[in-house]
Amino acid sequence: MATLSFDEIRQIFRDDLLDSARWRREKAKAYPDDFRNVEAAEMLEGLAQTVSEMSEDVLKELDKRFSTDEDTAIAFIEAQSEVLRSIGFRAWPDDAEDVARQIIDFANGVF
Prior knowledge:
Layout: H1 6-30, H2 36-48, H3 56-66, H4 70-86, H5 96-107
Helix pairs in contact: 1-2, 3-5, 4-5
């Protein structure tokens, strides 16, 4: 597969964070007594605003995940899904780079 540009990687990652925020807002409507969904959505939206600050080293790692064999890509998608679902519930990352590092570590079996 072709290597993505840093701008493309940033846009995909920003979109993923914002998609997760939208999903959390839908969960907030379904479970209005659980304040964590709204807080998680707000956190995800804030994290999306920090994507432009991600280091090239982390972007290169993310690119490897987007541009690799199917099994590795599936493992990455599963890791990303797990990490994004945990934000505001079991994880409170500082910025988008922290989220990306958690995803990379999870996909590599560090967690």
